[in-house]
Amino acid sequence: MAHLMMHAQVLKHFHKLPKKVQKKVPELIEKFQINPWDTAIGLHGLKESMLDHKVRGADLPDGYRAIVIAPEQGDTFLLVHIDSHDRAYAWAKNKRFEVHSSTGAFQIFDVQETTEALQDAVIPTPTVDDYPLQNLANDYLFHAGVPHLLIPAVRQVKSDQELEVLSEYLPPECYEVLVGLVAGLSLDEALAQALGTDVEDEQPVTIVGPGDFSQLTQRPNRDLVVVEGEETLKAMLEGGSLEEWRIFLHPQQRKIVEWQTNGSMSITGAAGTGKTVALMHRAVYLAKHLNNPKERILLTTFTTNLSVTIKSYLRRLDPIAAEHIEVTNLNQLARTICSRSGWKGRIASPEELNDLWDEVWADPSIVNLPMSKAELQKEFELVIDANGVDSEEGYLTTVRTGRPRMGRKERREAWPIFQAFRRLLLKQNLLTFEGAIHQARFAVEQGNFPPFRHVLADEVQDFSLEALKLIAALSQVNQGFSDPLCVAGDGHQRIYRGKVPLNLAGIYVKGRSRQLKVNYRTSEQIRLFAQSILEGTVIDDLDLGQTTIVGDRSVFTGPKPEIVQCADEKEEAKRIASWAKELIQDGFASYEICLTPYKPAIRTALEAEGIPTFELKPREEDPGPEEPGVRLGTMKRIKGLEFRAIAMGCSNESDAMNNFAKAELLERCERYVAATRARERLLVCILLPLP
Ligand SMILES: Nc1ncnc2c1ncn2[C@@H]1O[C@H](COP(=O)(O)OP(=O)(O)OP(=O)(O)O)[C@@H](O)[C@H]1O
Predict the structure, then answer these.
(1) What's any one GO cellular component for it (predicted)?
(2) Residues linked to residue 678 through DSSP beta bridges, in sequence order
């Protein structure tokens, strides 16, 4: 059967086409499947007027034309553009539509346009004359995926800015490989990143020429999709427009989705690189391949926000598969397991915990405090509770990463205090959040709660050791099942605790780990700024190694983040309010703007300008377009969300933004998280330096 593959750009602009034209497209697809040469399709050659002789036109109503690329080998046709007659043909006239015979990627490019873009770019001449691309041999560049005809243009590139100019003109995977090479990756590494292939398992490309489309439906492809008929098209364009993440995955994401593993696997990547998207697609893929429909899949997250978003996205992705996937956040998961396995208590509220600590401190037998009360409470939360430490001996040997030094003597002194606190919890049938996770793990390990066939967990950088052990138990990681556990996370975004290597919890991902490097959320300018907040720090890969952002990039560019100095909170509130007002005048909806952290002064300043506000409260969903109002929320609250514009206020001398070098890593990571929630615009207020 012949196929018609559609290009992402056609789907992206589909909603702008006249209704009559939109209606005809499914008919066109169906006719193609039956007989692509059917005269009723009206496919006609345009040899004389087109540079690429494979270009065909197909008539659509109201004088519109579809640009279809006919194969020289195979029976896969490509619908690459739809527009009014003159515009459609002008678009296609000088373009080439080819499969690259080294990488197998389908590429659209215009040699003249690319060369001219480079010549016209006003970029200062670099002082150093040995930019990496200039020294590469033609053959090397070809293996990197550069079409033969574009090699001369690529060899002209003398700086990062010039390479960036080409980002709009080079085929995307080819541009990505070049960025990787310039950043210092080897050719194999850069190709593996861009194409989602491994050198070991790579299928050799065996195409016979640029018009051989016979393998396009089988190879990972970031811009083309097979559309099988009206229903598929409708499903893709649910709500009238395309949500690209549902259909077009980066080849690395595709690899993650379909990767069959005999043990746990991990997905890493900086903020916005599509980890959650890959994880959701993988959950759906696994749900579709369950052997027994009674088997269950768990997808869990650290924050409540994210689990709410994932739940609704999974239903959009595949409502039938979503029925097999239980989505819940860690807190809820622990509660459910505890209560289903017979526990009758409650998780203590923060106020109740404070009351219990007060009771401990009031106990006259507690006299020797090896550190301050506040530090001891923190020690309990971050070390004792999070690691499930249940004996003094265990405590003496626990690794306390990121905590103040404590010798054996101090630990022995502290232990009775923690025991006293635990006794009070028990007396009232209360558990801490970590305590509930600990109980839940026991319930699973003792067979009081059934494990899942597959477990997927997001935001694992913030999981405690106990939480990691819980998901390991729930997925039976060491029982020899295929694809037991897939975890996703990012060490740059760890904001709740020190790192806990997966390995410590018996989750072994060596050789089964993938890093995503293409940022789909934030502009390149915002990505670079956010990255600068963490400059000089060492970020882990969730396990025992370090992560690197070499070769990372965003898929789009935008205005530079604005950094403004404000003398005090009053000035800060004024600056933020006038910035938000300007954005709204420029067409931003109020709910697309978020200000963090929440400060009453900022709210008052906005309201004085007549701008509605909406506070994002803990555990409550962001209602989106239904509820106008500039969003106000803490940096922790906005994790897992994204906005077109973010303003970060920080008119406080000790704020991390005022002095990165002095700030704690967790605080810097929190600022990184806040900055990377912004898609297009970022305003950062810092304190005016003291005289
Ligand atoms: N293949 C894709 N095509 C288009 N958009 C994508 C794709 N993958 C992800 N995105 C978009 O990029 C944004 C970030 O994706 P996602 O939330 O999955 O990233 P993440 O790595 O989990 O981010 P973070 O760690 O910052 O929460 C989302 O708006 C998502 O829709």
Answers:
(1) cytosol
(2) 643
Q: Which residue has better confidence, 364 or 683?
A: 683
Question: With 0-12 CB in 10 A as exposed, 13-18 as middle and 19+ as buried, what is 449?
Answer: buried
CA-based nearest residue to 548, from 278, 273, 269 = 269
Q: Which of 245, 312, 495 to mutate to test the pocket of ligand 1 (most atoms within 8 A of CB)?
A: 245
The answer to whether the beta carbons of residues 298 and 454 sit under 8 Å apart is yes
DSSP category for residue 334: H
| Dihedral sign from CA coordinates of 442, 446, 452, 453 | positive
| 249 Cβ inside 6 Å of ligand 1 | yes
Per DSSP, the three-state class of 540 is strand
User: Which residue, judged by its Cα, is nearest atom 6 of ligand 1?
Assistant: 245
- The 10 Å Cβ neighbour count of residue 667 is 18
User: Do 271 and 493 touch, CB atoms closer than 8 A?
Assistant: yes
Q: Using CA atoms, how far apart are residues 275 and 458, in angstroms rounded to an integer?
A: 8
CB 465 within 8 A of CB 243: no
The beta strand positions in 451-546, using DSSP E, are 454-457, 485-488, 513-516, 518-519
Q: Which residues pair with 329 in a beta bridge?
A: 301
Amino acid 311 reads K
d(CA 47, CA 89): 12
Which amino acid is it at 659?
A: N
Give me the pLDDT at residue 364, please.
87
How much is the pTM?
0.91
* pLDDT for position 372: 93
Tokens of 84: 């009014």
Q: For ligand 1, say whether the CB of 520 is within 6 Å of any of its atoms.
A: yes
pLDDT, tens digit, 9 for 90 and up, residues 300-322? 999 988 898 899 899 989 999 99
Type of residue found at 153: A
Structure token pair of residue 100: 């690259």
Testing ligand 1's pocket by substitution, the residue of 12, 173, 242, 520 carrying the most ligand atoms inside 8 A of its CB is 520
DSSP codes joined into one string, 27-94:
HHHHHHHH-TT-GGG--EE-TTT-SSTTEEEEE-GGGEEEEEEPPSBSSEEEEEEEEEHHHHHHHHTT
Contacts of 473 (CB under 8 A, 6+ apart): 441, 444, 445, 451
Question: Tokens 């409650």 appear where?
Answer: 346
Structure tokens given for 260:
């069959």
Q: Measured between alpha carbons, how far is 662 from 78 in angstroms, rounded to an integer?
A: 56
Residue 517, ligand 1, Cβ within 6 A:
no
Whether ligand 1 lies within 6 angstroms of the CB of 672 is answered as: no
**DSSP code of 652?**
S
User: What 3-state DSSP class applies to 326?
Assistant: strand
ipTM above 0.90, yes or no: yes
271 is in an annotated binding site: yes
The two three-digit tokens of residue 65, written as one number: 């034309």
What is the per-residue pLDDT across 535-582, written as a single tens digit (0 to 9) for each?
999 999 999 999 999 989 999 999 999 999 998 889 999 999 999 999
Q: E strands within 156-313?
A: 224-226, 265-269, 297-301
CB 272 near ligand 1, within 6 Å: yes
Nearest CA, atom 2, ligand 1: 245
Please give the number of the atom of ligand 1 that sits closest to the Cα of 269.
Answer: 21
> Which amino acid makes up residue 2?
A
